[in-house]
Each structure stands twice: as C-alpha cells, then as structure tokens.
Write a structure and sequence with these properties.
Length: 206
C-alpha cells in the first residue's frame, strides 16, 4: 500500500496522465495496478505501445532463427528477394543481426514510410520511388560501414517484419498472434481486427 501511495503522489506531482505498476518475482506477479486521471483507464485498458513492439518483432525473428528458418548473420537480401545494400560499401552485407541492433548503416529520411498500398522495396532498391542516398548514415561527413555504428532506425524493423513474411509465407501480424502473443496469454495485436469486440471497447488513446 505504501508503494501505491508513493506512485499516486508521483502521478499528481508531475501531472502524469497514467501509470502502471507490476511487481514480479520469479515469474509470479505479486502486485499489479493502474493509476490514471481518467477513471475509464484500468488494468484491462489496451494502449498502442509504439516502439515497445520492436521487442515482439525481435522475439519473432529469434524464434525463427532458433527453428533454423533463418540465419541472423545472413545477408537480408537472401530473404527479401531483392538486393538491399549500402552503395558506399558494396562488399559489406547488411545482416539480420544488424537490423536487430540498429547497426545496419541505414537511417531515417523524409520518405522512410512507404504508403500502405506500395511495396516496401520502393525505399530500398535504387530504382525505387522512395530511394534516396539520405538513407545511408554519415558521421562527420563520412559514410559508415554496415555493422560498425549504432543509429536507431525504425525502417529496419519494417524490413524484419517483411523477412518474417517471406520466410514463413504468412502475414506478419497473423504469425505473431499465433506464435507469440496467444501462447503467452498476451492481450495484444499488430492488427486491430485480432481483438474481440469487447477488447476493442477497452482501447484507449493518449
């Protein structure tokens, strides 16, 4: 109770919208509660978790690697079916491991999101509509070699999701639902259609 009161004080002091707390030891949940200025938010509320979802993408990739469906050190082009490389280092492959660890030498640029109805490869192949040399990371005006420099890159996880689809011939969101979220008892989804009507009624926005 003392800890809960302390957290409630923090919520008030810093004018936070909501906070959630869980005390876990040896895999067992000993305490779990939610505080919010919105009375409709509780432990069953569902939120969009943004980049926290990268953890699930990584788990999916590691599961497939563990099952010998793919090799973390392999060139991503092997799985994508088209060549993705840094033109300034054509003899250095970009691997799945590099995408996972944000060391691929790729970076965000103005066109890093491809419209829903178009193929992601349009951003990565030289003839692509959204391809740009701005995709490749520089430090102090010098292009960096794949595998040498950390640069947080959202697009790398779009590529990882695409690799998953290519490897197992199944939609990424369906695979994650069946292979990870449901077995773990996690109420979540990459596609809102996977929620029941009751679950959708619990979705909140911040």
């Amino acid at each position: 109770m003392f800890l809960k009161n302390e957290l409630e004080d923090i919520l008030s002091k810093y004018k936070l919208y909501a906070q959630q707390f869980a005390l876990i030891k040896n895999g067992k949940i000993y305490a779990n509660f939610t505080n919010s200025i919105d009375p409709n938010i509780n432990n069953d509320s569902i939120f969009r978790v943004a980049s926290i979802s990268k953890l699930i993408v990584a788990i999916a990739i590691l599961k497939l690697a563990d099952e010998d469906h793919l090799n973390l050190k392999e060139d991503i082009s092997t799985y994508l079916g088209y060549t993705v490389c840094n033109p300034h280092f054509t003899h250095h492959k970009i691997t799945i491991k590099m995408l996972l660890s944000h060391t691929s030498s790729l970076k965000e640029h103005p066109n890093y999101i491809v419209p829903f109805d178009q193929d992601i490869k349009e951003m990565f192949i030289p003839s692509g509509q959204y391809y740009s040399d701005e995709l490749f990371l520089k430090k102090n005006g010098v292009y960096v070699q794949p595998g040498t420099t950390f640069e947080y890159y959202n697009g790398g996880y779009m590529l990882l999701a695409t690799i998953i689809e290519k490897v197992i011939n199944q939609r990424f969101d369906d695979f994650v639902q069946q292979a990870i979220l449901k077995p773990l008892g996690i109420v979540g989804a990459f596609n809102i259609s996977h929620f029941t009507r009751t679950q959708r009624s619990k979705i909140q926005a911040i």
